[in-house]
Design brief:
This protein has 290 residues and is mostly helical. The protein is built from nine helices and two strands. The longest helix has 34 residues. The protein starts with a helix and ends with a helix.
Length: 290
């Protein structure tokens, strides 16, 4: 899947002019890729026998490895095509290269082991766990490639970690760093971390214009407020984990995981996979009640 495919839906002659429109195109690319991957998971989980944990683990590992090998590079190439479309044509020529994650095999092995055990007791939850984790895995190459491209580009763009909509305290903390010029400055390197089902993206910028919906100053203010509160309570050098806990408690309305905030179950991107997960969850609930 290349970036030009995502542009095909635009009317002839239409040029993407604003940062928000550029981001929408990339978000559509990511959403289409991950939805397609989740659709493929339906064929796995319809026949997977969670009663046999060793067998289900090995079948998952083989299937998920193939899935990531198919969808990961496609999304990475699409992301680099998007990067090139954003890059001003008058800048010194530069062609970014795709980065292939070397640690994918180990992560998929751990995921398969965990999901196989979980699926024995709760198949529906296992489906959701795998979908969230595999979505992160598929995006790893794209995220790292964009980050490295911006780092090495002779035109020296600035870039930022930008969440999609209301997000969790963890992502807000990392995104509060704002625009930087070197990847090591992105939250001290911790900005390269993502959780399952994370919607954050690395966004390059050459125009130094405000990005609609991205307010790093507000995020940083929430971070500072939480850090000061922790220090006031006697924590001399609060860690990120402690600071995010204070953020959730002090400004719960700002975060999707704020203290006391309702956290409804997030629907999967694929309607078919969501229907299957919900069906398995209902079956599991009926068995427990019986």
């Amino acid at each position: 899947m290349r970036f030009c495919v995502a542009l095909a839906a635009l009317p002839p002659g239409v040029v993407i002019l604003t940062s928000s429109e550029q981001l929408k195109v990339y978000d559509q690319l990511v959403r289409a890729t991950l939805t397609g991957a989740e659709d493929q998971l339906v064929s796995l989980f319809r026949v997977l026998n969670f009663e046999d944990i060793p067998l289900s683990r090995e079948e998952m590992k083989r299937f998920l490895s193939s899935l990531v090998d198919a969808y990961g590079p496609a999304l990475t190439q699409g992301a680099l095509d998007w990067y090139q479309e954003l890059r001003p044509s008058y800048k010194t020529a530069y062609t970014p290269k795709a980065l292939i994650p070397a640690d994918s095999v180990e992560r998929i092995d751990r995921l398969s082991r965990y999901a196989a055990g979980l699926g024995h007791d709760n198949p529906g939850k296992a489906i959701r766990v795998v979908a969230g984790a595999i979505g992160r895995e598929i995006q790893t190459g794209a995220r790292r490639s964009i980050l490295r491209a911006a780092d090495l580009d002779p035109s020296a763009p600035r870039f930022a970690r930008v969440p999609v909509g209301k997000t969790c305290a963890f992502c807000t903390l990392l995104a509060s760093r704002g625009w930087v010029y070197h990847s090591k400055d992105l939250a001290g390197g911790a900005g390269h971390e993502y959780h399952d089902s994370c919607d954050c993206r690395i966004v390059p910028d050459w125009e130094h214009k405000a990005l609609p919906g991205y307010h790093p100053d507000d995020m940083y203010a929430a971070y500072l407020s939480a850090r000061r509160a922790a220090v006031k309570d006697g924590v001399k050098a609060p860690s990120g984990r402690i600071i995010t806990a204070y953020m959730r408690d002090g400004h719960p309305e700002m975060f999707s995981d704020g203290q006391g905030v309702d956290r409804p179950s997030r629907a999967l991107r694929s309607r078919r996979l969501e229907k299957l997960a919900a069906s398995r969850e209902k079956e599991n609930s009926n068995e427990q009640e019986g």
